[in-house]
Amino acid sequence: MADDPAMTFAPTKESGLIDPTLDLFEEIDRLRTERKAVVLAHFYQDPDIQDVADHLGDSLDLAKRARDAHDAEVILFCGVHFMAETAKILNPSKTVLLPDLDAGCSLAEQCPPDQLRAWKAQHPDHYVVMYINCSAGTKAEADMICTSSNAEKVIHSIPKDRPILFGPDKNLGAFLMKKTGRKMDMWPGACMVHETFSSQKIIKMKAQHPDAKFIAHPECEDHVLMLADYVGSTSKLLQFVQEDDSGKYIVGTETGILHAMGKLAPHKQLIPVPFQDRTAACQGCNSCPHMKLNTMEKIYLALRDLQPQIDMEEGLRERARLPLERMLAIS
Ligand code: 13P
Ligand code: SF4
């Protein structure tokens, strides 16, 4: 539980709908049992949400948790829309809740299914690998899905003579081309959070903290990744910090991960990556505005009212399931 109760009860438009004397941690706990719900949360969620979750993980772990949630009747997904949709695709008989349906993802927005279909039509011989950060409609057009945890394995599983279309993240794609030596045609998408990181500021920070290692998520641009001592998915970054013998890290990913990292490696010093400029339009570019739409209040309301739910037409779900199952089979 977070130390500062004000974090839990900060006024939002949901505040008026909730008795202010309620302890949201207790209420969520009570409702979770009543509803036979499992609460899944991504590492980019606020600390309170991470602490209230049954399982915390990266995109791959959470997809597996959702698929294997046999005992639950409800999956409450504290993450973004494509993650909750993936839970529904893999476990359709469950009620899947997302506390705020507007919690999207810039990558998913940048690659709508009709545009992917048109790109595929221009490259009929290519094998299509889509990063899990896309909608169900876009997944349904892919041959295989990958996450940042298993992307190298996925690319290596494709026959060497088969050309590849990769999307929607051109930065992850460029990183994979370097790692695997496979040439791929790239969709021009990027994460609105990771692409704001500034290499000049990281160079400055490295000079200020010469004893720190710089670790980064592969959604960062190449000029940032070139400065990194280690590149990996959220769970791999966490594992690295736990197992590595340095005492200090500059952390190049969304700021929510610092909470999980601080708990797993309490004796390490963690410094969030600097972002470009604090302009009026950017008050904290290392914070994902989509992930941060979820709040404790919305989680409470979602469990109480069993809304908002993720629903999907069965034909679409089946088409989106196939490339996900192919990924899970080799993960
Ligand atoms: P991970 O799979 O590494 O958790 O990444 C998810 C994501 O959205 C990163 O921005
Ligand atoms: Fe999407 Fe970037 Fe937010 Fe991850 S951090 S959910 S990739 S916008």
- Count the strands? 12
Q: Could you name the CATH topology of the largest domain?
A: Rossmann fold
Largest sheet at a glance? Answer: 4 strands, parallel
User: Class of the largest domain in CATH?
Assistant: Alpha Beta
- Compute the CA-based radius of gyration: 20 Å
Order of adjacent strands in the largest pleated sheet: 2-1-3-4
CATH architect. name of the largest domain:
3-Layer(aba) Sandwich
Q: Give the tally of structural domains.
A: 3
| Fraction in beta strands | 5-15%
Number of helices: 16
Name the CATH superfamily assignment of the largest domain: NadA-like
Order of helices and strands: HHEHEHEHEHHEHEHEHEHEHEHEHEHH
Q: Average pLDDT, to the nearest integer?
A: 94
**Structural class assignment:** alpha/beta
As residue ranges, the low-confidence spans are 1-9
* Bound chemical compounds: 1,3-dihydroxyacetonephosphate, iron/sulfur cluster
Based on Cα principal axes, name the global outline: globular
Separation, N- and C-terminal Cα atoms: 32 Å
SSE topology sketch:
Layout: H1 5-9, H2 24-34, E1 37-42, H3 47-52, E2 55-57, H4 59-67, E3 74-78, H5 81-90, E4 95-97, H6 106-109, H7 113-122, E5 127-131, H8 136-139, E6 144-146, H9 151-156, E7 164-167, H10 170-180, E8 184-186, H11 199-208, E9 213-216, H12 222-225, E10 230-231, H13 234-243, E11 248-252, H14 257-264, E12 269-272, H15 296-305, H16 314-329
Parallel strand pairs: 1-2, 1-3, 3-4, 5-6, 5-7, 7-8, 9-10, 9-11, 11-12
This protein binds 1,3-dihydroxyacetonephosphate (13P) and iron/sulfur cluster.
